[in-house]
Amino acid sequence: PSTASIPGYTYGNAEVAESPFRLDDLAILKQTLLFTEADVQYLRMAGTVLEPQVEAILDVWYGFVAAHPHLVAYFSTTQGAVLPDYLARVRARFAQWIRDTTQREYDQTWLNYQMEIGLRHHTEKKNHTDAAAGAPTIIPLRYMVGFIVPITLTIKEFLKAGGHSSAEVEQMYAAWFKAVVLHVTLWLQPYAQPGEF
Ligand code: HEM
Question: What is the ipTM of this complex?
Fold first, then answer.
């Protein structure tokens, strides 16, 4: 399906800022995460398994956010009113992120969009893409890191649904974990002082 219909999804567009992080930096970061070419192949396998389940996965993740007032606050006005349009627009991009994570090549265009997603969680761009009203202007770093746990652990049941062997499920699960950590790490660039990332 075309990504042109996803509001605010600007992957590969000219207005996406260029990441200061380059492909040779990425290669070394991948080594640090034990992320190899085999993981790319298991992510492709995971993509096939997850594709028909994307909405069900988002139901779990959005349910998790909705169940925690300190998280849903980031999709709400400062008075605490939830912004349904903001939630819906971000949900469509989140669905595409599952596809991108499992299907895209992690090239410079991909790196640039990771910078963009980092900025969108940070004061520099949070709320801008969706013109969201009055919501907090940053997702705190501690929740960015903490959210790795639910985004990782909850995927296991969905990976099991594809009829693959338990060994393959474990490999897909490990590849997913590495990919999530890789993404969140890159997204934290705007949170670091110059020279600290
Ligand atoms: C946006 C994933 C942590 C709240 C997004 C998007 C993705 C995503 C894929 C859409 C990116 C795009 O615009 O194309 C993740 C992952 C996280 C994480 C994988 C950590 C593992 C959090 C946390 C919160 C949060 C802890 C707090 C509730 C938001 C909000 C937006 C957003 C409010 C919209 C930002 C904007 O205004 O553009 N996230 N996120 N995220 N996320 Fe996260």
Answer: 0.99
Distance from residue 121's CA to the centre of ligand 1 (Å): 6
Ligand 1 atom nearest 150 alpha carbon? 21
3-54: per-residue pLDDT in tens?
989 999 999 998 898 899 999 999 999 999 999 999 999 999 999 999 999 9
- Domain range summary for the chain, segments of one domain joined by +: 24-191
Ligand 1 contacts CB of residue 43 (under 6 A): no
What is the distance between the alpha carbons of residues 74 and 71, in angstroms, rounded to a whole number?
6
For residues 8 and 90, what is the distance between their CA atoms, to the nearest angstrom? 8
Number of H helices, E strands in the chain: 10, 0
Measured from the Cα of 183, ligand 1's closest atom is 19
User: What is 24-191's CATH number?
Assistant: 1.10.490.10
Residue 165 Cα to ligand 1 midpoint, Å, equals 32
Q: SS3 for 164?
A: coil
What confidence tens digit (pLDDT) does each residue in 75-117 have? 999 999 999 999 999 999 999 999 999 999 999 999 999 999 9
Instruction: Assess whether the C-beta atom of 97 lies below 6 angstroms from ligand 1.
Output: yes
Which pair of structure tokens corresponds to residue 174? Answer: 């490990």
Q: Using a 6 Å cutoff on CB, does residue 184 contact ligand 1?
A: yes
